[in-house]
Amino acid sequence: MPAPGETVDPSRVHALDPDQLAAAVAAARESIRAAADLDALAAARTAHVQGAAAPLVLARRELGALPREERADAGRRHNAARAEAQAAYDTRLAELTAERDACVLVEERVDVTLPAARRRRGARHPLSSLSDRLVDVFVAMGYEVAEGPEVEHDWFNFEALNMAPDHPARSEHDTLYVEPTDSGRVLRTHTSPVQIRALLDRPLPVYVVCPGRTYRNDTIDATHSPVFGQLEGLAVDEGITMADLRGTLEVFAQELFGSGLSTRLRPSFFPFTEPSAELDVQCFACRGEAARQPRQPCRVCSDEGWIEIGGCGMVDPNVLRATGVDPARYSGFAFGMGLERAAMIRHDVREIRDFVDGDVRFGLPFGIEV
Ligand SMILES: [Zn+2]
């Protein structure tokens, strides 16, 4: 910058010439108009209007080099040129901002009518639900829930239940033994050992319901499975009679299959009850009509009119003695049923394998806590 009185070098103030300023403004306009987006526009502004190397910024630095009398004019010219470039920038900025906002509105549009992505929560297994429901029936009548080990000692599973080692009923159980074979341990073939444990563990009177998994050496087919669920009940008290058993099972059968259905007991045999009986309930589908009118076949009861749902009887005095209960003072009844069988009848399931295949679609139609 020249000192006062120094000769002015015309080449240094050339940038403030009207023509040069107009050219700088034209270049700025061109670059600003050509900016395709906000980033390009910012770069154009730096190059032509604001940056340290921008011609308009460089031109302003030359003001001081002019003779004093020319500075005011040159300053006005420069201001006008800068304002023109700034106006071009402001206009393009407004255009590009509007374009970007319009794009954002389209790209980030949310369709509030789209269905939400739902996760299936799965369903409770139909057997678990049935077991809980049946247990609730007995709990409502004052029973307690009792459970026991699935690997059981021979004494609990057979001997205490009036099945000595040579008892012929043992062979019907198709028992699975735990190695070594003389270990005396078996996979329990029924839930009855839980009744023995209840009588040993609990003070009398005893009212227990025992749901659980049991095992037999059965080949799996449409109606047999080596693993199946049972539900048993036991009541031991003073003065218990067969009438108590009948009344209890009637309440239970109606809870399972619906009200207004008759029940009947048919004589049977179990080593641990005497007398023993099979419990039948009137067919809930035909209400016994299929047996009376053969022209209306019923798939549920095979035209029998009755459905067998379990075994029962008065507890054999030998079982009471085995657990230290005086049969002269106490008596009791016991009953048991297969859970899969009850569920198959109740829901018309034709294949027992469906319960263990693990296909969630099988459980969903039961509509249980999905
Ligand atoms: Zn029927």
From TrEMBL:
Q: What class of enzyme is it?
A: ligase
What is the UniProt remark on how the cofactor binds and its stoichiometry? Binds 2 magnesium ions per tetramer.
Q: Where does Mg(2+) bind?
A: E274
Query: What is the E.C. number?
Result: 6.1.1.20
Query: Which catalytic reaction applies to this protein?
Result: tRNA(Phe) + L-phenylalanine + ATP = L-phenylalanyl-tRNA(Phe) + AMP + diphosphate + H(+)
Q: Which cofactor does it need?
A: Mg(2+)
Q: Where in the cell is it found?
A: Cytoplasm
Matching InterPro entries: aa-tRNA-synth_II, aa-tRNA-synth_II/BPL/LPL, Phe-tRNA-synth_IIc_asu, Phe-tRNA_ligase_II_N, Phe_tRNA_ligase_alpha1_bac, Phenylalanyl-tRNA_Synthase, tRNA-bd_arm
Q: Which UniProt keywords apply?
A: Aminoacyl-tRNA synthetase, ATP-binding, Cytoplasm, Ligase, Magnesium, Metal-binding, Nucleotide-binding, Protein biosynthesis
Question: Short name of one Pfam family for this protein?
Answer: tRNA-synt_2d
A cellular-component GO term for this protein: cytoplasm
Name any Gene Ontology BP term: phenylalanyl-tRNA aminoacylation
- Give the Aminoacyl-transfer RNA synthetases class-II family profile domain ranges: 128-365
Q: Name one GO molecular function term.
A: phenylalanine-tRNA ligase activity
Q: Which SUPFAM superfamilies match?
A: Class II aaRS and biotin synthetases, tRNA-binding arm
Q: Which Gene3D superfamilies match?
A: Bira Bifunctional Protein, Domain 2
Q: Which HAMAP family match?
A: Phe_tRNA_synth_alpha1
How would you summarize the oligomeric state and partners of this protein?
Answer: Tetramer of two alpha and two beta subunits.
Q: What protein name applies here?
A: Phenylalanine--tRNA ligase alpha subunit
Q: Which organism is this protein's natural source?
A: Candidatus Frankia alpina
* The encoding gene: pheS
